[in-house]
Design brief:
By secondary structure, the chain is mainly β. The chain is built from four helices and 29 strands. It has a 16-stranded antiparallel beta sheet that branches. Strand 2 and strand 3 form a beta hairpin. It starts with a strand and ends in a 16-residue tail after the last strand.
């Protein structure tokens, strides 16, 4: 495994719940309760015992100056320090936590963009990091969207989205605006493409953690570990639940942990020498696992992966010979200008023989026509008379 947990920010524990920063608005405040907060780290949002979103980014982090109302940028913050952050969500509040981690090998699915924008003018601010003026060429660019730049780099978040009149929730195709990227990347070059992707629903149920105090190998590649639930915590391990093995590294004030194994099923549980189906309510118990790599002071994290969502219902095809302007505008690649052209041509010539002819007629590029397949169809039409007859010879 390549994931390293570098820190935890808990909201509702800072001296101030939020601070107001010019150009950014109100930023939520939290306290670093484990490890360190490192600007640019990936993050997942914990709400209670659930992970409600993954692949967020700690794109901007500020600290409030002592004996002053002003703030200053921070690249990292240590144990028990207060920080105010921008991660691509506006709903962080008391009881939420950001689990910060570094993971260079595993990332979200970024194969199907829902919006593409051209970078026109990059800029930089010492407090807010990079921002870019963009022209949305395809789809709808939304605040908080998962995104990447065409010249490379890891997954990012749209940290802020601004139109001519101020902050907006989204920018449709054909519009210009400013995207705040913060400190997630190097300077984006003019001419690069900013691609936005749908953020997958990610829900993981966590059942608690337990610290390993002793290990007994069984000689068949499995073992039994004596574990204890930390003070002030609760855990409910059950037979069959999956666990991760976290190996702590660093010091007390800069503690990190590496995920060395994941997806290990609990083979057995026992309390006071008696087999039990669940450890709920117990502070000390034993766990049987199918691994040989477990050490004293490792942490077992029990979790339930999200169930596979039901298959989405098929999207009805848009008939380019009968659809309204609004329906055509929801097709990939159809800007308002192209929709107007399509309606005018359809009125003039009575319709289009197929989707490919429709795409060529309104000026779509070959790759844009490919994206239409599976989303559009061309219903049967009667083309107007041309005045030419075939003669019998």
């Amino acid at each position: 495994m390549t994931e390293t947990r570098v820190g935890l920010i808990e909201f509702g524990k800072a001296i101030h719940d939020s601070v107001t920063v010019p150009g950014l608005g109100e930023l939520p405040g939290g306290q670093v309760s484990a490890g360190r907060a490192v600007r640019g780290a990936r993050a997942r949002l914990l709400r209670g015992d659930r992970i409600v979103e993954d692949n967020l980014r700690l794109g901007i982090m500020v600290r409030k100056k002592y004996f002053s109302s002003s703030v200053e940028p921070a690249t990292e913050a240590g144990f028990l320090k207060d920080v105010y952050v921008v991660v691509g969500r506006r709903d962080l509040g008391k009881g939420d936590a950001l689990e910060l981690y570094a993971d260079e090998a595993v990332g979200p699915d970024m194969s199907r963009p829902e919006a593409v924008a051209a970078v026109e003018a990059p800029g930089f601010g010492p407090l807010t990091g990079f921002h870019v003026q963009v022209l949305v060429r395809d789809g709808v660019l939304r605040f908080g969207a998962l995104c990447s730049l065409s010249h490379g780099g890891g997954p990012m978040r749209v940290l802020g989205l601004f139109g001519p009149a101020g902050p907006v929730a989204e920018l449709p195709a054909g519009q210009r605006g400013t995207v705040l990227l913060g400190f997630q990347c190097d300077v984006p070059p003019a001419g690069a493409a900013l691609r936005a992707f749908p953020s997958p629903d990610f829900v993981e149920e966590r059942h608690g953690t337990a610290v390993v105090h002793g290990v007994s190998a069984l000689g068949n590649g499995s073992l039994v570990a004596a574990v204890e639930v930390p003070d002030g915590r609760s855990a409910a391990f059950t037979v069959g639940v999956s666990v991760r093995v976290l190996r702590p590294i660093g010091t007390t004030f800069n503690e990190r942990s590496t995920v060395v194994a994941s997806g290990l099923p609990v083979l057995s549980l026992a309390r006071d020498g008696v087999a039990v189906p669940s450890s709920a309510g117990a502070r000390v118990f034993t766990v049987g696992l199918g691994t040989a790599d477990l050490r004293q002071n490792d942490v077992l994290e029990a979790y339930a992966a999200p169930l596979a969502p039901p298959p989405a219902p098929p999207v009805p095809l848009v008939d380019v010979n009968a659809a309204s302007g609004d329906e055509l505008g929801r097709l990939p690649g159809l800007s308002p200008a192209r929709v107007a052209t399509a309606l005018e041509l359809r009125q003039r010539q009575g319709g289009f023989p197929d989707v490919e002819a429709f795409g060529v007629a309104i000026g779509l590029q070959p790759h844009e026509i490919v994206r239409l397949r599976g989303r559009a169809t061309a219903g049967r039409v009667t083309l107007p008379e041309t005045g030419v007859r075939q003669l019998d010879i």
